[in-house]
């Protein structure tokens, strides 16, 4: 299990040669991923989801906040002592072209981490090769066909499966799949998603899924939790089905609504939300980060930042002074 409390991350703005300009990628994010659970982080480009995924996988530092893995606060450990904890959390690279070393056969690619694992767990050399075959079968490819080949001799789908098999060499507790950087095509994406779901069921690994696509989050984590990120802040979270079927934050509503119509409401709907406004971080908002794009904003929204609060349903939280159920026509209704 991993929890994050108040995780913040600020980058120097890219291309800002004089320095001083910063981007707040994460502004105090709290999250929990339970053992065997599935959590999806969704939001539009730049909301901080890739940064969060990399922090969870131990590949990115954070400025403040705390990450606790299996009860151990990472702040209490020196960076080197944190490695064994983060090693059990594996980021699945979604670009199978660059994720594998082109000069190594698949056998060599799997053998290196498995040899290390064998030493750690006092297993024999014979185990290394058996395990390589076992992992390839687990991800649905024929070991006899791929072991002696190089990445360029395999299809993209096979390469992606090898990447997942390699992540499994360390017996991970958690897989973090960042689809927002995905280079794979649609049919391959679907089979990879199905495989990740299957691995979660069969191995009991937890799954963190990073995407901008609600339908994907729903497919992968239907029994899990959904976090909606907006400009580095969690604006809504709860059970995936709960959030999707009864979104209460106007931003989530806008992500979900395919047709710019709201039924039975006098108020303007989230269809008025400006889809991509250039946001100027030099004039930070005192109030709600979504206020400038929100059709329901009031003076209070511009002056005060809403925190995540529970609504009528105890397992569902949203950061909005005007949170309420509003009916939206779901994306799949018009797909
Ligand atoms: N290494 C970096 N240096 C400077 N700024 C960065 C860096 N990495 C991310 N950022 C900025 O931090 C913000 C969050 O980026 P992040 O990649 O986490 O968002 P994202 O939601 O995953 O977006 P996308 O879906 O486009 O990958 C963005 O404004 C981005 O430009």
UniProtKB/TrEMBL annotation:
SMART domains: AAA. One of its GO terms (molecular function) is ATP binding. Residues 2-256 form the ABC transporter domain. InterPro entries: AAA+_ATPase, ABC_transporter-like_ATP-bd, ABC_transporter-like_CS, Oligopep_ABC_C, P-loop_NTPase. Gene3D superfamilies: P-loop containing nucleotide triphosphate hydrolases. Pfam families: ABC_tran, oligo_HPY. This is ABC transporter ATP-binding protein. The lineage of its organism: Bacteria, Bacillati, Actinomycetota, Actinomycetes, Streptosporangiales.
């Amino acid at each position: 299990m991993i929890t994050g409390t108040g995780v913040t991350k600020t980058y120097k703005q890219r291309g800002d040669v004089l320095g001083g300009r910063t981007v707040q990628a994460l502004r105090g994010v709290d999250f929990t991923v339970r053992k065997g659970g599935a959590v999806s982080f969704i939001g539009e480009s730049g909301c901080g989801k890739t940064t969060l995924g990399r922090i969870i996988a131990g590949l990115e530092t954070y400025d403040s906040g705390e990450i606790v893995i299996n009860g151990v606060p990472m702040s209490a450990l020196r960076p080197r002592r944190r490695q064994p904890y983060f090693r059990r959390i594996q980021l699945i690279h979604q670009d199978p072209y660059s994720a594998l070393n082109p000069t190594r056969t698949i056998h060599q690619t799997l053998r290196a981490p498995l040899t290390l694992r064998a030493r750690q767990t006092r297993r024999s050399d014979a185990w290394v090769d058996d395990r390589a075959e076992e992992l390839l079968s687990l991800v649905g490819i024929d070991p006899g066909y791929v072991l002696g080949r190089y990445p360029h001799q395999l299809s993209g789908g096979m390469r992606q499966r090898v990447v997942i098999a390699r992540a499994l060499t360390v017996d991970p507790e958690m897989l973090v799949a960042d689809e927002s950087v995905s280079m794979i095509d649609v049919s391959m994406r679907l089979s990879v998603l199905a495989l990740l779901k299957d691995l979660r069921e069969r191995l009991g690994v937890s799954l963190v899924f990073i995407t901008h696509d609600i339908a994907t989050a729903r497919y992968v984590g239907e029994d899990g939790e959904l976090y909606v990120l907006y400009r580095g802040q969690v604006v809504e979270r709860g059970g995936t089905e709960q959030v999707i079927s009864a979104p209460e934050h106007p931003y989530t509503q806008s992500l979900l609504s395919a047709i710019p119509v709201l039924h039975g409401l006098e108020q303007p709907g989230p269809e008025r939300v400006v889809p991509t406004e250039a946001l100027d971080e030099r004039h930070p908002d005192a109030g709600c980060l979504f206020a400038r794009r929100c059709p329901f904003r009031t003076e209070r929204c511009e002056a005060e930042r809403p925190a995540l609060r529970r609504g009528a349903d105890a397992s569902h939280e949203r950061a909005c002074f005007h949170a309420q159920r509003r009916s939206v026509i779901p994306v799949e209704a018009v797909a």
